[in-house]
Design brief:
By secondary structure, this protein is of the alpha+beta class. The protein has 13 helices and 7 strands. Strand 4 and strand 5 form a beta hairpin.
Length: about 375
């Protein structure tokens, strides 16, 4: 039987495919019979699956993050597609291509690396450029930075998401700096590229996306600040004032205490970083919600729980429902050593943000993580 992907499963479809188990929960129905709920994923998305029969037998065969060959049937329940599992068996990892199971950025890593290098070359040959060189000339660091997602569930949730998101925020930083001459462009670019750098250790992304122990106990903001402190000390006579300013950008980029920010923005560059980071996160999160429903009827999306609304998205503006081609992360070449180079619509007002009226996505991320 032809393999079918998550975004192709329809009502009453008979499915024979391999999926990655993102989560599994066993429970007891009201009639006293055990059942199991699975979250299954491939590179096109996730689907909930239910096991109603032979639960104890099947439960002994696999764990979370295993690969399963599933035989089942598509079932529409309360407006969402589910998979009713009839048979399952574990599949050995050596028979698996991970690119089939984890979503990957549509932008090639080589293309994003070129954009990053051009951005670094556009900076003044000062402290911030030298510090960024210490980070991005390190091939081991860049391998992690170019693979990590930007979040677990809200935005840029794919391999390469951190790099794609950071470059988008940096591009917005350049636009703002060009319009407002008083902005320290180098500091803002450094903040854009490093604001989420701690996520290379906060998140695990070799199989499904989850939080590491250090991510849960320390968090990416503190982890990022520690990385800046450590690497800045490898540069002789690096100005401590510049380290302090960059640390403040990381510590305040969530904007408000209730959104997990240890400090509120108290510099112009910090205020800008908070807004443009939130802007890019919201745009990606909303577009992802729109794109995951290519076969919906009508021009409105399903209800988005965290945004507390539906979104208007006419079908003619959306891509057709096709399984995207696998685009595994390409090997990263050694960088040249010589170089040193949230929850209102997008039209929310500045006053509303400063008053904390919009339900920022970072708050939801923190709530889910904690």
């Amino acid at each position: 039987m032809k393999q079918i992907y998550v975004n192709q499963i329809g009502e009453r479809d008979q499915v024979e495919s391999v999926f990655l188990v993102r989560d599994r929960i066993q429970a007891m129905a009201r009639n006293g019979k055990p059942y199991m709920t699975l979250k299954l994923m491939d590179r096109t998305g996730e689907i909930e699956a239910r096991v109603w029969d032979r639960v104890d037998e099947f439960a002994r065969l696999f764990e979370k993050n295993d690969f399963l060959h599933i035989s089942g049937r598509g079932n529409l329940y309360m407006g969402k597609m589910q998979l009713v599992v009839q048979q399952l068996r574990k599949v050995a990892e050596e028979n698996i291509d991970l690119a089939d199971f984890l979503p990957v950025s549509k932008r090639p890593v080589a293309e994003m690396r070129e954009e990053l290098d051009q951005l670094l070359a556009s900076m003044n040959d000062g402290p911030m450029r030298r510090l960024l060189g210490v980070f991005f000339d390190d091939s081991d660091f860049f391998r992690l930075y170019s693979r990590a997602p930007a979040a677990k569930g809200m935005h840029h949730v794919f391999i390469g998401g951190l790099l794609e998101h950071s470059l988008a925020v940096a591009a917005l930083a350049c636009d703002v700096a060009q319009r407002y001459a008083q902005v320290d462009r180098d500091l803002l670019i450094a903040g854009a590229l490093l604001h989420d750098v701690g996520k290379i250790g906060e998140l695990s992304y070799e199989r499904s996306f989850d939080y590491t122990d250090e991510g849960k106990l320390v968090g990416h903001i503190v982890m990022g600040v520690e990385m800046i402190e450590e690497r800045s000390r490898t540069i002789p006579d690096f100005p401590r004032q510049q380290v302090m300013l960059l640390k403040h950008l990381l510590l305040s980029h969530h904007g408000q205490y209730e959104y997990g920010s240890p400090k509120r923005p108290k510099m112009l560059e910090a205020v800008i970083l908070n807004f443009i980071d939130d802007l890019d996160s919201k745009i990606n999160g909303i577009q992802t919600h729109i794109d995951k429903e290519p076969e919906r009827t009508g021009d409105w999306t399903s209800y988005h729980r965290l945004y507390d609304r539906y979104f208007y998205a006419p079908h003619e503006t959306q891509a057709s429902n096709k399984v995207p081609p696998a685009d595994p992360v390409a090997p990263v070449a050694e960088p040249p050593k010589a170089r040193r180079s949230r929850d209102e619509p997008l039209g929310f007002t500045l006053g509303e943000q400063l008053a904390g009226q919009n339900l920022n996505l970072f708050a939801h991320e923190k709530e889910k993580k904690d």
